[in-house]
Specification:
Number of helices: 3
Strand content: 25-35%
CATH topology: Nuclear Transport Factor 2, Chain: A
Radius of gyration: 16 Å
Structural class: alpha+beta
Number of strands: 8
Distance between the termini: 15 Å
Largest sheet: 5 strands, antiparallel
């Protein structure tokens, strides 16, 4: 997860709020299966509001969609939020589509959102959000079941620029880096 939009800083302003963290089941014993990335996350109701809480909810939801897109190749919800110029967004969509077009699959990689904080830049228009999330290990397989790539996962901080249009959020840019 190192794809960024050039590392451009996302401006901040004084108004901020923290959105509720997406519901995540507590860790299960080794006898139970791990979380299923093939089930899309629930869209939070707070995304309906053009404010800092809505920005935080939209950003957390977008990041929670990442493993779903890779696990299923279904990019509809991702594309509804992703701006055409968002490099991170396009890279994830294209990467997931390429895997599935070749008959491959990705297993694992479930993301647990730990926190999401939104900041108002220009009321009812421009926002930024910071999401801290942990990604579980994942494995990419080709159509024959051969392992192509393994990721150990990790803990990441996402800086996200968002715009609220007439009735929905648009992710304009994402910068991601590991949390030390």
């Amino acid at each position: 997860m190192s794809c960024t939009d050039g590392g451009a800083a996302i401006p901040t302003a004084a108004t901020s709020a923290t959105a509720p963290v997406l519901p995540t089941p507590s860790p299960s014993p080794t006898t139970e299966p791990s979380q299923d990335a093939t089930t899309p996350p629930d869209r939070p109701a707070a995304m309906a509001t053009p404010d800092a809480d809505g920005a935080a909810a939209a950003a957390a939801y977008f990041i929670a969609l990442y493993p779903y897109v890779y696990a299923t190749g279904d990019t509809r919800a991702w594309d509804e939020l992703a701006a055409p110029a968002c490099v991170f967004c396009s890279s994830a969509r294209d990467g997931a589509s390429s895997i599935h077009t070749r008959g491959g699959r990705v297993e694992g990689g479930f993301i647990t959102v730990e926190s999401a904080e939104g900041t108002e830049i220009d009321a009812a228009n421009w926002y930024s959000a910071t999401v801290v999330a942990t990604e579980a290990p994942s494995t990419e397989y080709d159509a024959n079941g051969t392992v192509l790539e393994e990721s150990q996962g990790g803990r990441y901080r996402f800086a996200i620029a968002l715009t609220f249009t007439v009735d929905h959020w648009v992710v304009d840019a994402v910068d991601v880096g590991p949390v030390q």
